[in-house]
Specification:
483 residues; Aspartate Aminotransferase, domain 2; seven-stranded mixed β-sheet; four-stranded antiparallel β-sheet
Length: 483
């Protein structure tokens, strides 16, 4: 949302928030149904749902399947939300970002470390036994036991299932619209190679996933980071200004539950972005990797939902929901399909045969939605626990995001903190965080960190948050004495 603007759903949400704060709605009390509010206020169901998603993301309410929305027990201490980011246009230093990313990745493969830095769900939450059976079935059923190349476009059964899933967000896709890729990163890579060339400029949120930044710079692209709100995503006005001035050749957005902010672009903004950039013939590359991990009642819409001119390139994967190591992703390139097929052919020929077949069979079994339902419930609970723990343990002046899905919290500390330095201190305690500097090419976000709540929550994890809080307090005292 642009600064200063207020949408109807926010007016509804702010009114309910005031009633919760004033105890007119008490903890545990059921809120009016979506239909009742629609009838009383004369607004659409999507507007009320957007308001409830917003309140749920801020931690005021929680949804219960088949029961509705209820007021949460608020923590004793509530932290403010992060400020809207204000990235500059120049001053890139990709080497710092790359070195920091490599450093963090080295901590991933130790069972001793507590990995708040890892952006995947814990293996405890994945249907491993069922996937094992699907892999065995794939070995037995595929020609050559899966040793042969799959088609360049990918397993047709898998493409059909992805197309069927798109009904949930008005995607209106068919199997022929989709290309299977090796994870979402290959989908993003193919997308960029298809629509831009070295020296071109792309626009994206700030902060944003470090993998996208590294990919863009590796392809010789210039990245313009845009102001971004931790709740409502990229500043639409800033994006339109760049488009009007002809300064960008493509736009890359994580539209739902952005990594690392957790922001979700409201549907009205998605429509506006999609239609405006289509008029300018500027392709939108949409990384929609986290949308199925929503905490509300329904999956949020995507930019692709509003794409009338096939200008949105929609990318996804099961890496964050089902099997990170399978590296099964996809892309719906719209009008760029043939060009992207060529790039796929010359760069990788095809994706892994066995994994595609196993995922296709799992999706066909109907178990995927049940798995997602359980995973969403676990992640939502983890989000509330980590939020409450951070609120209690971190120093005064800390700000924290309130995602409506996914498994990332963005924590903004007072300016005196340097989370790149804190990373080394915390690693002495076997605790790995993701410093904020990873998520930008500029010298910013040094006082920020991303914490994942994708792991199984237990007392060890709770104690680790307290250790981080204690070290932050010690660090702050040291910095105060130095001043």
């Amino acid at each position: 949302m642009d600064a200063g603007s207020t949408y109807l759903y926010r007016q509804i949400a702010d009114n309910i928030e005031r009633k919760i704060e004033s105890k007119d709605f008490r903890a545990g009390e059921k809120l009016p149904s979506v239909r009742n509010i629609c009838r009383e206020l004369g607004v659409s169901m999507s507007t009320v749902l957007e308001a409830y998603y917003y309140l749920e993301g801020r931690g005021y309410i929680t949804s219960r399947p088949k029961s509705g929305y209820f007021v949460r027990q608020l923590p004793a201490k509530r932290l403010a939300r992060p400020e809207i980011s204000t990235p500059g246009v120049y001053g890139e230093d990709a080497d710092v970002t790359n070195m920091l990313v490599q450093k963090i990745y080295r901590s991933f493969h130790s069972d001793e470390n507590i990995l708040f830095s890892v952006g995947v769900p814990g293996k405890e939450f994945l249907p491993v036994a069922r996937l094992d059976k699907e892999m065995v079935r794939a070995l037995r059923s595929l020609p050559g036991s899966g040793t042969l190349y799959e088609s360049v476009q990918g397993n047709v059964r898998l493409r059909r299932q992805i197309a069927l899933q798109s009904i949930n967000w008005n995607g209106n896709l068919t199997a022929d619209d989709i290309i299977i890729t090796t994870g979402c990163m290959e989908a993003l890579s193919l997308s960029l190679m298809t629509v831009v060339k070295a020296g071109d400029c792309i626009a994206t949120e700030s902060p944003v996933y470090f993998g996208l930044l590294q990919l863009a710079r590796g392809l010789g692209l210039n990245v313009i980071e845009l102001p971004t709100d931790a709740q409502t995503g990229v500043c639409v006005r800033s994006l339109m200004k760049l488009a009007d001035e002809g300064k960008i050749q493509a736009c890359c957005l994580i539209s739902n539950f952005n990594n690392p902010l957790g922001s979700s672009i409201p549907a009205v903004n998605k429509r506006e972005i999609t239609e405006y950039l289509s008029q300018k013939n500027i392709p939108v590359i949409e990384d929609d990797l986290y949308a199925d991990l929503f905490f509300g009642l329904n999956r949020p819409l995507s930019c692709k939902s509003f794409d009338k001119n096939s200008n949105v390139i929609w990318c996804g994967s099961v890496s964050k929901t089902l099997a990170p190591g399978y590296r099964v992703g996809w892309v719906a390139p719209g009008k760029y399909l043939e060009r992207m097929m060529h790039h796929k052919l010359v760069s990788s020929v095809s994706s892994a045969t066995l994994q595609q077949e196993a995922v296709a069979t799992f999706l066909e079994s109907g178990r995927y939605e049940n798995h997602l339902r359980k995973l969403r419930g676990i992640l939502h609970t983890n989000c509330m626990k980590l939020t409450d723990s951070v609120s209690c343990c971190f120093p005064e002046g800390t700000r924290i995001s309130a995602p409506g899905g996914g498994f990332m919290l963005w924590v903004e500390l007072p300016d005196c903190f340097n989370t790149t330095e804190l990373y080394d201190i915390l690693m002495e305690h076997k605790i790995s965080i993701a410093p904020g500097r990873m998520f930008t090419l500029q010298n910013q976000y040094e006082n920020c960190m991303r914490l994942s709540f994708g792991m199984e929550w237990n007392e060890t994890i709770n104690q680790a948050v307290k250790v981080i809080g204690r070290i932050l307090t010690q660090y702050e005292k040291t910095m105060t004495r130095c001043q």
